[in-house]
User: What shape does this take?
Amino acid sequence: MKSDRQPPMTDGKQRLENMLEALKSRGYRITPQRLAILKILAQSRGHPSVESIHKEVKAVFPTTSLATIYKTLTLLKELGQVLELGFADWGSRYDGNRPYPHPHIICTKCGAIVDPESESMSVMTQEMSQASGFRITHHRLDFFGLCPQCQKEE
Ligand code: ZN
Ligand code: MN
Assistant: This one.
């Protein structure tokens, strides 16, 4: 895993199938709650937090606990099926649509996080590797600023 080449954006359906396959092959049961969590993660490009996933699942399954969300996320992380973006100030956000390293743009006002389309990551990774002698295994690259909506509201 962890090639710096970005596969094309996969659709939510394929990601959901991959997640289900990964869980089933390890013998994990797919409860309706867990399926709801997987669907949110597979489709979402919005990089949800644990709390926002919880809120969305609770709307359909009111007894779902926050611990269930955490457990499922931990499991998916172990299986390489979700990317966790940890922020010291804001907590973690999750990308189940693209579970491999890729750059992000973060709005410092509203917390929106998007995946920029960029072709230059593999070039940059090669340059880094050549300049340092490191064998690069993965990367973390965040850009910060104001999203178009927040710029309008300024
Ligand atoms: Zn914003
Ligand atoms: Mn992302």
